[in-house]
Amino acid sequence: MRGESVVFDRGKRAVLLALLLRQANRRVSLGTVVQTLWEKEPPESAQANVRTYASQLRAALCRVGMPRLESPRGSYLLRVDCGESDVEIFAEAVTAADAALATARLTDAQDHLRRALEVWRGQAADGLTGHGPLKLALDALDEQRAATVEKYAAVCLRLADRSTTHTSSSPIPHLRMLLAEQPLRENAWLLLMRSLADTGDRAGALAAYGSARQVLRRELGLEPSVELRRAQEEILHA
After folding, report:
1. Gap between the Cα atoms of 118 and 151, Å rounded
2. Where on the phi/psi map is residue 134: left (φ > 0), alpha (ψ -120 to 50), or beta?
3. Cβ atoms of residues 190 and 171 within 8 Å
4. Taking the CB of residue 175, how many other CB atoms lie within 10 A of it?
5. Where are the domains of the chain?
6. What does each of the 238 residues of the chain score in pLDDT, given as a tens digit?
7. Which is it for strands 75-78 and 69-70: parallel, antiparallel or unpaired?
8. Is 91 buried (19+), middle (13-18) or exposed (0-12) by CB count in 10 A?
9. A single Gene Ontology molecular function, please (predicted)?
10. DSSP letters along 199-230, please?
C-alpha cells in the first residue's frame, strides 16, 4: 500500500494479515481469528497470542505511516482505501472484461483480462497455512484466477484467428504457470497446445500433449479427453 512494504515471515502474523486483508473494512471476530490461525484445538494462550500478533501488525503499519488496524470490541478491522487492494483491482478488471465480451469487443476484453492477471505473482497468499474461512476464500481466489487465465487464452486465440500477425499478448506464460500449480486442468492444457501451435511451435504443442497425457495417467489413471486427442490429431496433420 502506498508503495510501502510490510513484511512478515509465513507464520501466524502473516496469516492474520491475509485474513484481515481478505475481510478489509469489515469486523473480524476474535473467535474467527483463532479458528483461522489454529486448525485443531487452539492453545490456552490463543487469544493472548492473537493480541500480540495484532499489536505487532499495528506497529508495523504505523512505521510506514498507515495506522490502519482498529480493534472494535472483541474484533479487528483493517482499513483499506479504494483501489489499494489487488483483489479489488482484479475483480473490477474481470467484470469489465465480461462486459466487453458480452458486446464482442475482444480487444478490450483482452486488455482488461491482461490487467487482471498483472496483479498476480503466484497463488493467493502463497505459502501461508490458513484454515476455516480464510482457506475457503483463498481457494476461491485461486479458482477465479485459473478461470481468468483460461478466459484470457481463449480470447487471445479468437483474436489470432482474425489477424495474420501475432501480437505480444501471449497467454502461454500464464498457462504454464497455472499448469505448474494445477496440472490436472485439461482445458488449460488444450489452450496451451492451441496457443503454441498458433505461434508455429508445433513441436511444443505436441510436447504439451505428451505432458498432459503423462500427468493424467499418473495422477488419475485416465487418458486425455476427446478434445485433447482431437487437438493433437489436428496439430499432427496441420
Report:
1. 14
2. alpha
3. no
4. 24
5. 12-78, 85-164, 183-238
6. 445 555 566 688 888 988 998 899 999 999 999 988 987 889 999 999 999 999 999 998 888 777 889 998 889 999 998 888 888 999 999 999 999 999 999 999 999 999 999 999 878 767 676 677 788 888 899 999 999 999 999 999 999 887 755 556 799 999 999 999 999 999 999 999 999 999 999 999 999 999 999 999 999 999 999 999 999 999 999 8
7. antiparallel
8. middle
9. DNA binding
10. TT-HHHHHHHHHHHHHHHHHHHS-PPPHHHHH
110, amino acid identity:
Q
Find the distance separating the first CA and the last CA of the chain, reported in whole Å: 50
Q: Which residue has the cell 483491482?
A: 89
Paired with 1 in beta bridges are none
Contact 57, 37 (CB under 8 A): no
Contacts of 130 (CB under 8 A, 6+ apart): 15, 18, 19, 36, 37, 138
